[in-house]
Specification:
Structural class: mainly alpha
CATH topology: Amino acid/polyamine transporter I
CATH class: Mainly Alpha
Distance between the termini: 18 Å
Helix content: 55-70%
Oligomer: single chain
Number of helices: 20
Largest sheet: 2 strands, antiparallel
Radius of gyration: 21 Å
Order of helices and strands: HHHHHHHEEHHHHHHHHHHHHH
Shape: globular
CATH architecture: Up-down Bundle
Number of domains: 1
Amino acid sequence: MSILRDCLAVRPVTEADLQGSGKLKKVLTAWSLTAIGLGATIGTGVFVLTGQVAANQAGPAITISLLVAAFGSALAALCYAELASFLPVPGSAYSYTYATLGEVIAWLIGWNLLLEYGMSASAVAVSWSAYVVNLLDEWGINFLPKVLTNAPLQAVNDHIKTTGALFNLPAAAIVAAMSVICYVGMRETARVNTAMVSLKVLIIVVFIVAGIRYIDPANWHPYIPQNTGAFGHFGWTGVLQGAGIIFFSYVGFDTASTTALEARNPQRDLPIGIIGALVISVLLYVGMSTVLTGMVPYTQLGVDAPVAVALDAHPQLNQIGMGVFVKIGAIVGMTSVILGSLLGQPRILLAMADDGLLPPAIARVHPKHRTPHVATVVSGVIFALVAGVFPLDILADLISIGVLLAFVVVCLGVLVLRRTRPDVPRPFRVPFAPVTCVVGALFCGGMTYFLSNGTWWRLLFWTLLGIAIYAVYGYKHSKLRKR
């Protein structure tokens, strides 16, 4: 019983937690936080996954999938906003869960967040590689053989098989490059990210405006293609499975919450950054997917570079340079997503190490740059290797289920803290809290039903590995248990 009690112990919310700390540089404004959220949101989802989900799950009804995912994300975002303003600490859902539902559940959520952020960086890097190779081919540059620009593994009917390739070198290289920027400092990272976000938002708007002229309404019929007989392949099950997969596209606001210690006024600016990033990204996603599925039949979009397919189908756009312009924008956009993912991951590792659940070396902060440099290097090396080995479809499913589980506990965490700490002022409060939180938890939990069986098996393996690490190291070294 004592072991069970230790595992369910809740980390008390201290005055230091409520006030934040000076461990990292406080340089982020409300706009910086919104840009970080957008940087981590608008990338592979808008340039790649919208096309793949349309081709394989939802057809033109990808727009419905996006809105369903946006509804669940909005409920979770409201809960994130309250907890982020209440607890301006790094660690995102891990830290919120530790203060509400106990250590072992927090560990499992944190462990899955590591999967979410790491796989997000790796998945986007795979798409980045496809776009870069495509663009270089157009310019007649082919200095790398195909065995070094493709993943050596692929998923076939929930089984993993080899492709004959050796390593996706461009994907690994971009992860390494973005890790270097994160290592140097938050101010520099924020500036690079803001510049890239501004450019990619401009390019998406230009693509939508230019592409409207080339929409053929016949490409939207049938809007929801008939189910093929397989669960999740068109029909309403496909729309809902598409929503579960596309959740990957909306994780950016979670990244903003991991930078709480670096926000100048976290109680005010974090809610603005979280909600602002989600609202802007939903508008851009729906607009992009509507135009994309109108320009070409959805059956042609199941590739790593669907926007390139849409542009190549309309030479008039390429004649005015739109093809190269949008492809460069996609590359820049995905670069910022990789940067955002690699920004969030080390801060979750930092929070877990500060609590004693990971080795103390992980919590080290660079004396000059004031960044979690050890965690940044570890994350960069591991997920550069992952990006070089695994294909996009395996990585995207794993990210979605990690996000959904984190959203569930964050929604429940608001209710718990409303009961256990009702006295603490909350700069932002979830409207209609009991209903919003319960519906958010049920909705996000329900969406996991529509993910593939292979995703659940891979999650089970990852969870068992996490439990083993907690049992061997985390339980023994937990600072809360020692106190």
